[in-house]
Design a protein that fits this description.
The complex is a heterodimer of chains A (131) and B (108). Chain A is an alpha+beta fold and 131 residues long. Chain A has one domain. Chain B has 2 domains: 38 residues, no CATH class; 69 residues. In chain B, helix 3 packs antiparallel against helix 4. Classes of the chains: A alpha+beta (131), B mainly alpha (108). At the A-B interface, helix 1 and helix 2 of A face helix 4 of B.
């Protein structure tokens, strides 16, 4: 453990939660992105977190998992992208699930920010010894 | 630069240091420290880590104003680390100066 071990670990957590927020915002922005049935649907992005075993520890993003390329087939004959049978491909993204994950990512980020602040207060309490 | 007021003091008081060594060794047997191995540390290492923390915070501040910063918390965390390091260095310096002036006040 280095001198700022707790702050560094919490910082790695904040980075992961920030990337999760990025992925969710991308998913929500593309929730109505329509593709033709010949193409793949927009694939939802899911951040894969992985613990860091070396050094102080922490967490990092191991990669991004993609959602279904199949998507949902929706009957929209008026859509210019519709095929001969009138179907288009919508992404298979559940809005309520994304909103729940949004709250989890926000709270996780805030929790790690709170850890940084508490660690700072703790170090400063150590500096007050003997004053 | 090496600050070791305790070892400097014991150099002037060899007989008392030797007599207190036996008393201290009984007290500090668990920690493994004896009066013969008076604490001495190198403050340049502390200064170097402070310098590194300040440089890191400065570099991230430049990234923030030029729009190259990926994470806002990277800068704020680096700035916090630099600030705490500076406070730690100042605390060590104050304690060292305090010990030095305390010794300088001594009279026979």
């Amino acid at each position: 453990m280095t001198i700022f071990g707790a702050i560094g670990v919490a910082g790695s957590g904040m980075t992961v939660y920030r990337k999760w927020l990025d992925a969710i915002s991308d998913n929500l922005a593309n929730v109505s992105t329509v593709r033709g049935t010949d193409d793949d649907a927009f694939q939802a992005r899911y951040v894969v977190a992985q613990s860091i075993e070396s050094g102080d520890g922490g967490v990092q993003v191991a990669g991004v998992a993609l959602g279904s390329a199949e998507g949902r087939l929706v009957y929209e004959p008026d859509n210019p992208l519709a095929d001969d049978e009138g179907y288009v491909r919508y992404p298979d993204i559940d809005m309520s699930s994304q909103m729940t994950q949004l709250i989890m990512a926000q709270r996780g980020y805030q929790a790690n920010a709170a850890v940084v602040e508490r660690a700072r207060e703790t170090y400063q309490a150590a500096l007050q010894i003997g004053r | 630069m090496s600050i070791s007021p305790v070892s400097a003091l014991s150099a002037y008081l060899p007989t008392q240091a030797a007599s207190s060594a036996s008393a201290l060794s009984a007290l500090s047997a668990t920690s493994g420290a004896t009066a013969a191995q008076a604490p001495s540390f190198d403050i340049t290492g502390v200064i170097d880590s402070l310098q590194a923390a300040q440089s890191n915070a400065d570099a991230l501040a430049v990234q923030a104003v030029t729009g190259d910063l990926d994470d806002v918390h990277d800068y704020t965390i680096a700035a916090t680390q630099a600030a705490v390091s500076l406070e730690l260095t100042a605390a060590i310096r104050n304690k060292a100066v305090e010990a030095f002036t305390e010794i300088m006040r001594m009279q026979a």
